[in-house]
Amino acid sequence: MLGLESQDQASLALPLPWQESLWQSFISRLDQNRLPHAMMLTGSPGIGVERIATALAQRLLCTAELSKYACGTCKGCQLMLAGNHPDLSILEPAESGKAILIDQVRELLGKLSKTAQQGGWKVALISPAEAMNISASNALLKSLEEPQGQTLLLLLSYRPSLVSATIRSRCQVQGLPLPDSAQASRWLAEVSGDQKLAEQTLEIAGGRPLLALDYMQGDSLQQRQDFEGTVEQVRRGDLSPVDAAQHCHKLNSDQLLDWFMNYLHRLATGELQNSPNPALFDFSDKLRTARGWVLSGSNINPQLLWEELFMDWLQVFRRRGR
Questions:
Q1: SS3 (DSSP) at 66
Q2: Of 169, 172, 180, 308, whose Cβ has the fewest other Cβ atoms within 10 Å?
């Protein structure tokens, strides 16, 4: 998952091109003093949920008048550029994949209960909101039920169904859709300087341009292609489900399941578009169920999980005589 942009960045964040209308809505509400006390931004990882949240937080803490974006020169912006703005709080798990705990929330609430040190807004970014355990969520409720003036809680969620219903009901929820493919491709090509590779990688990334850029700049694309190669080998019968599971059981199951679901979508809408296989839909349900188990924190044996999934995957094509 792409991480939240932290304070210790060399430059301020700007909304991405496909976020312009949403950004204008935020600024309009800010100008009219109609921002809610709590917002939940939802969307897929890799489309810029964290980018627009960071940009909004920075704009609120900027002291320039009538500025569409954070100005970058005022005292508030200079504090953010230095990575130590006292009125900006970022709440994340202590370790990737771990929960946000009640003590972290209590510390945050203690900070928010005090007067803003710079005399303006206080902003808290909580990401991902679904990482809060039950105790942490319950601790946050009081702040949501008794909001303070000029305080904004920005919750970011990539799986909002996993966020407590009581938390969701007390936030103004704003969903961010996938960007238009042409606009995303154009942006990615400009950033990367390679139109053809941008288009290919964007397709692999399921239309998520920041994820595609991450693939292009690191080694995760090769890891994903290696995994899809394993999936293809099982499909052809060249690799046994047990051996395939051996390749996967020590890796991040949540990420692999996300890759598998995107691979399945590309298969159904591409190669098999004119030869639909109903068993693919049944298998897709099994992947979603497996992902639910993984995200629930259940004590699952990854080797057995992947063995079962690959056995079911092999049967999808054997039943068709492929």
A1: coil
A2: 169
* CATH 3.40.50.300 corresponds to the domain 17-175: yes
* Rounded CA separation 83/5 (Å): 11
Distance CA 199, CA 194 (A): 9
Please report the DSSP string for 104-163 in residue order: HHHHHHHHHTSPPTTSS-EEEEES-GGGB-HHHHHHHHHHHHSPPTTEEEEEEES-GGGS
Q: How far is CA 144 from the centre of its chain?
A: 23
The DSSP code sequence of 222-260 is HHHHHHHHHHHHHHHTSS-HHHHHHHHTTS-HHHHHHHH
CA atoms of 224 and 261, how far apart (whole Å):
12
- pTM (two decimals): 0.80
> Are the beta carbons of 126 and 157 closer than 8 angstroms?
no
Beta bridge partners of 42: 157, 175
From CA 231, how far away is CA 292, in angstroms rounded?
20
Sheet holding 88-91, edge to edge: 88-91, 122-126, 151-157, 38-42, 172-175
Spatial contact of 77 and 70, defined as CB atoms under 8 Å apart: yes
Q: What is the pLDDT of residue 4?
A: 53
H helices then E strands: how many in the chain?
A: 14, 5
CA distance 239 to 71: 56
Q: What is the DSSP string of 40-64?
A: EEE--TTSSHHHHHHHHHHHHH---
What pLDDT does residue 182 have? Answer: 94
* DSSP line for 162-182: GS-HHHHHTSEEEE-PPPPHH
Tell me the CA end-to-end span of the chain in Å, nearest whole number: 35
Q: Across the chain, what does the average pLDDT equal?
A: 89
Strands 88-91 and 38-42 come out as unpaired
The answer to whether residues 102 and 131 touch, using CB atoms and an 8 Å cutoff, is no
